[in-house]
Amino acid sequence: xxxxxxxxTIVCTLSAFTTTITCSLNAAELFPGxxxxxxxxxxxxNFNGHAPTSAKPPTKWSNDSNIKWKTPIPGRxxxxxxxxxxxxxxxxxxxxxGTRHVIAIDRxxxxxxxxxxxxxxxxxxxxxxxxxxxxxxxxxxERLFCSFDYEKxxxxxxxxxxxxxxRKHRVAPFTAHQGFSxxxxxxxxxxxxxxxxxGDGEGYLxxxxxxxxxEAWRAKRPSAPSYVSPVVQQIGxxxxxxxAGCDMVAAYxxxxxxxxxxxxxxxxxxxxxxxxxxGKLVFSSGGYPKHETxxxxxxxxxxxxxxxxxxxxxxxMILIGDYLYAVADPGIVYCWHKDTGEEQWKHRLGxxxxxxxxxxxxxxxxxxxQANTYVLRLTPEKLEVxxxxxxxxxxxxxxxxxxxxxxxxxxxxxxxxxxxxxxxED
Length: 426
What we know:
2% of the residues lie in helices and 45% in strands.
């Protein structure tokens, strides 16, 4: 994988002054059964919020236009849609029954293909903005990997593409603080699960063989509440597993779980957003107790190059060329030069945001909690609102992109709450 990603870096062309990215390789191509148009895991094909260059989604839609289909989803969940082939996969929880489900939707018709109940029982404590089905499903083209917290533990469920349960793993003990949201991450033959927890001696990173289910390694994490999804990115000539939260930014060997370096104090205790790197710096932000965004040298020293007193808590950030863009929870968009942290501009959109921005066809898509999806043109000079589209009244899950379609999961709240999955197509 390192060779292929290095090749991708060589042939990848970035422009520092536009919102375009051109790259001849998607990480999805490294897994059998995953195609270039698939959105098979959290943060998209290359785990960085960039849709493939083949993505050409519409910029405008409404309840009456550019909707291919709309289908009701039982219960509640914040997992983003996972798209593989002609199926869309979601997790959800029917809270009044205490049931956890994995659901498959036909991509062409919106019909439910199957629903597998993986658990029924007592729900642990959760934060009002979180759900009991927040981690996104990861798919390697043959299996679905789904994380849930229940019975004071983190569990990983593995299903085939027909909804049959292949196995489950009790990953680690878990003391609920504000719920659980870390999505499983696929790397080579492994699936990696983060289980940060505030309980005494409970924090872990754990990797399993995707095919056999054998535990490959287990790495201890500090005992602190955090919600970050693990991500492997290339730094120099190595693939590195990155994590924030627990009062540090940390790098691990993804094949062994060995700690490569730690930058203590470079991140706050509670973080949610997935880390980013340009190969030289690692970028993170968090929400409690410190409010700051940082850039750390990725050379093993863990030196903090810059930090700004800005809190980006739930949304992940995005790199476009030489600039780091972030949509803060209170609806303020920031642009910083990635090397210096110098603020280029900030722009108030308003509203409250929990979704993470996605770059698709040169534009950035991001939704607020009131189910308004903004289509933005971001440059180092300014922000331009290209369109603002609303579907429903409440949204926490981010959008997923494939070809000419984008998929949105939002809810309509009146006397009762009903979630829907929308397929938006021009």
